[in-house]
Amino acid sequence: MKKKSVLGLLLLSCVITSGMFYGTMFLMRQQAYLNSEQAHLKEDNKKDSDKSIDAIIEDEKAYADARNDNKNKTEEVDSSNKDEPEDKEDPKNSEENDEDDKTDSEETLGDNVAELPDLIGDSSQVDYMKYIPEMVIDSNIKKALDIKNPSLDINAKSAILIDVNTKRVLYYKDPVVPVFPASTAKLLTALVSLELCTQDEKVTVGDELDLVASDSTVANLRKGQVLTIRNLIEGMLLPSGNDAAYVLAAYVGKKSLGNKKAGIDESVPEFIRLMNKKAKGLGAVNSCFKTPDGYDALGQYTTAYDMGMIGIAAARNKTIVEVCKQSSSTNKFLDGTEVTWRNTNALIRKDSGLYYSYCIGLKTGTTTMAGKCLISLAKKDDKQVLSVVMKSDSSGRWNDSIKLLDYGLSK
């Protein structure tokens, strides 16, 4: 081989070797760079991840703080209900002040009644007493009960007798212990309904019937029927129709909301709010109503004294007395349907064997938790008295009521 050819081959080999060396170094530097970048990316991702978790923790902490603040505010409001100032309201002026006075407790109570009632089907399975706060004996109650209480043999757990004209208490037995209203609550439902509606307003029966407990007393209303407010008042107070009470509640609730299309989940709670506002305005400071028909429900309670205040207002309502003094009533609906309802109050009916000639109302009530209840109105000459008998038995409520009314009318 020629000398020039050998030198050429050696030069080519050097070039190739150098290229391979520098190429290898370049690749190694690139890999190191990539490894470094990946390490940085991993670190950045970890930091971002840690930051997100911290943000979530901070959000949860903020949310928990907000919940605790709301809870504390609620507890403060609840405690204000229990410790209401004694001189807050004079029962003598409660009817006149009801339209203008709007107390904090009334607003709070309205806020608390934000859902449909939780009915109690089996009271033996429910610790319902834990839903009842300590009763308040304010200065108005103390003054009303500051009497020389006569000795009367009354079997009911709780009772009170009141002069309707003067609102003076004539007798009492445990008047401020918690009891359950049963259908005596319908007097309050009637008061609220008649306050916001005229008797000839037309009402269409709707889905509110689905809220009526299966074992309720009813006026046998059907969806789609069109009745007047007066029809519904009679169907609620005479045969004690729970269905009529819910139809009234749904209609009046919509009217109060200013929304004819409001569902029952809005209109019925709104009506219950109105019930409690009205009760407080009448001086019933130890009551919480959860249902328009008085059916047992969690958190619902009253006292004989409170039902006396509500009863006095009902006794002074011409329409309610006019309805309740009937032994029966025939109603004709707008679609031509005609029904006759019989009064559940045996003191009103001459065929009952318990007829009391001076009695002109008002309302019976019966549930498992309430027992047998009766609010009675009697009139003799210019004298009118109201008796409230709560948690009695089948015969006791009639006998206790007659005994109280006799005593009251003789004073």
From TrEMBL:
GO terms for biological process: cell wall organization; peptidoglycan biosynthetic process; proteolysis; regulation of cell shape. Residues 42-95 have a biased composition (Basic and acidic residues). It holds the Pfam family Peptidase_S11. One of its GO terms (molecular function) is serine-type D-Ala-D-Ala carboxypeptidase activity. Residues 42-116 are annotated as: Disordered. InterPro entries: Beta-lactam/transpept-like (IPR012338), Peptidase_S11 (IPR018044), Peptidase_S11_N (IPR001967). Residues 96-109 have a biased composition (Acidic residues). Keywords: Cell shape, Cell wall biogenesis/degradation, Hydrolase, Peptidoglycan synthesis, Signal. Gene3D superfamilies: DD-peptidase/beta-lactamase superfamily. Residues 150-393 form the Peptidase S11 D-alanyl-D-alanine carboxypeptidase A N-terminal domain. Belongs to the peptidase S11 family. This is Putative membrane protein. It comes from Herbinix luporum.
